[in-house]
Amino acid sequence: MSGKHVAKDQPKSFIFSSENLKTKDVILKKYPEVRKKSAVMPLLNLAQKQNDGWISLAAVQYIADLLEVPYIKVYEVATFYTCLLYTSPSPRDKRQS
């Protein structure tokens, strides 16, 4: 068990910035239409970078909608890989800001 816990304070929505929408398009062009769900990791990484180092549940839903896959499929990836922080920035990270 990784010890990750979902943050209580979650934003209600998430959308890529205009710059990241362009990056999203570049990422998706690397995958055939029938395999676009394979872009889940780079899109989660992009969301994490935009969201000050963590991935909100709203971002997980947003990416699931973009890839036309069930929410749980993106959530599973976000919670499996330790390089993806789906909870919230740690208190230590907040102090450094």
What level of helicity do the residues show?
Answer: 40-55%
Summarize the biggest pleated sheet: none
The secondary-structure class comes to mainly alpha
DSSP, total strands: 0
Tell me the overall shape. Answer: globular
The number of helical elements comes to: 5
Chain-averaged pLDDT: 85
Q: What integer value in Å does the Rg equal?
A: 13 Å
N-to-C SSE string, H for helix and E for strand: HHHHH
Query: Could you name the ranges where pLDDT drops below 50 across 5 or more consecutive residues?
Result: 91-97
CA(first)-CA(last) distance:
28 Å
Q: Per DSSP, what share of the residues sits in E-state strands of 2 or more residues? A: under 5%
Structural notes for this entry:
It is a single chain. By secondary structure, this protein is mostly helical. The chain is 52% helix and 0% strand. The chain has five helices and no strands. The chain has helices at residues 18-29, 40-50, 57-67, 71-80, 91-96. Helix 1 runs antiparallel to helix 2 (40-50) and helix 2 (40-50) runs antiparallel to helix 3 (57-67). The longest helix has 12 residues, at 18-29. The protein is globular and about 35 Å long.
List keywords for this structure.
mainly alpha; 97 residues; disordered C terminus; 5 helices
In short:
This protein is mainly α. Helix content is 52%, strand content 0%.
Give the topology, please.
Elements: H1 18-29, H2 40-50, H3 57-67, H4 71-80, H5 91-96
Helix pairs in contact: 1-2, 2-3, 3-4
